[in-house]
Amino acid sequence: MNSYDIAIVGAGIVGSACAYECSKRGMRVVLVDREMVGSGATAAGMGHIVVMDDSEAQFALTRYSQRLWQQMRPELPDDVEYDECGTIWVAADDEEMQEVERKRAYYAARGVATQILGPGALRELEPNLRAGMKGGLLVPEDGVLYPPCAARFLMERAQERGAETRLGDKVVGMGGERVLLEGDSEIRASFILNASGASAPELTTGLDIKKRKGHLVITDRYPQFVRHQLVELGYLKSAHSTVSDSVAFNVQPRRTGQILIGSSRQYGAEHKEVDHEILARMLRRAQEYMPGLGAMSAIRTWTGFRAATPDKLPLIGPMASDKSVWLATGHEGLGITTSLGTARILVDQMTGARTEIPSEPYLPSRVGKEHAHA
Ligand SMILES: Cc1cc2nc3c(=O)[nH]c(=O)nc-3n(C[C@H](O)[C@H](O)[C@H](O)COP(=O)(O)OP(=O)(O)OC[C@H]3O[C@@H](n4cnc5c(N)ncnc54)[C@H](O)[C@@H]3O)c2cc1C
Q: Among 33, 10, 313, 9, which Cα is nearest to 191's?
């Protein structure tokens, strides 16, 4: 008999959410990470809990997950800083106002409340946006949280139900109901979960996951300067590009009064160092939308790596080639939002329960060329 029902590799927000859900269902869990809880992309992420509509499957997973965050809200400790501040998708021109209309209709048809803002209403809600914006779409149920503390909270809940953690242990292989650790020891479990984010292809060969680098800047405290998560509608165009580097206006109010400024997307940049050219482009873009940001002092800049799949959907489910190996990775820029939905779908599949939303769009078998190695 294996020592554990499941060994989870990766204690980011996705692995932590899976540990939480597995332990809740009575499974014997061990979670392994070469670093700390919430130290990978989770520490770098913005923490925007957002419903997105690039595809029906993306909408379903983001909306499902957002609802799970809302349900969990009464339990979340203060340091998770969950705040339902809403998103405003900012329209700079008439073409983007058409996109506002399309988005409103799409969300309305699926039960998501929104409000169209004209120039006056937008200015009233966000007086520090540049004058001359055409309007925007307010999505009031979207929120923000502080990802590393959210991951730690999920992990602690799992530990209270008996989950074990092995931090500082590097995994060098997985498969055949075994996780191999550097230094030759191994963990045996009936299910092995690769939740190692952008590092997942290093442990499971054949995964089509690319690192997509992002930069963020955080300012000193300027309370009420920004009140909602503000995202330019042009973001949709730039986030879709699979070839070029892109930047977009994307700012977030933190509970501390600080402003988190994003964001950039780059393929092929594998080093963690700040790229000053793309950072300057990103900040210029932010100032085009909010000129006052130029006078603020930034206190920290950092980078992180999103795990990007070709169809922009995560991989959640079993591998075809080794039934003991499962995946929960490839969440690109939405893994904070979709961690809770991912965990539910995964454990429903493992236990043979009916998933609350269709799981097929996220199954690893949709890409069909993976195989494991021990
Ligand atoms: C700049 C930026 C902004 C973002 N903004 C948002 C946002 O606003 N909203 C949102 O929903 N998402 C956002 N994201 C995406 C989000 O941060 C990620 O999708 C999410 O954090 C992925 O979580 P994860 O647990 O899969 O991976 P990670 O957090 O990367 O965790 C993987 C873990 O695996 C461990 N690991 C890797 N290899 C090994 C090994 N061999 N042995 C042992 N351990 C290993 C790592 O140490 C790490 O702790 C953003 C990402 C970036 C980079």
A: 9
pLDDT at residue 239 in the model: 58
Nearest residue (CA) to ligand 1, atom 37: 196
Work out the burial of residue 202: count CB atoms within 10 Å of its CB; fewer than 13 is exposed, 13-18 middle, 19 or more buried: middle
Q: Distances in Å between the alpha carbon of 269 and those of 35, 196, 285, 303?
A: 22, 19, 21, 11
DSSP SS3 for 168: coil
CA-nearest residue, atom 48 of ligand 1: 40
Q: Single out the residue of 309, 324, 295, 294 nearest to residue 369, CA to CA.
A: 309
The SS3 call for residue 363 is coil
Label residue 67 exposed, middle or buried (CB < 10 Å: 0-12, 13-18, 19+): middle
pLDDT tens for 95-142 read 999 999 999 999 999 999 999 999 999 999 999 999 999 999 999 999
CA of 11 to the centre of ligand 1 (A): 9
Please give the Cα distance from 6 to 333 (Å, whole number). 26
Q: Ligand 1 centroid to 136 CA: how many Å?
A: 30
The enclosing H or E element of 346 equals helix 335-351
Q: Which atom of ligand 1 is nearest to the CA of 196?
A: 34
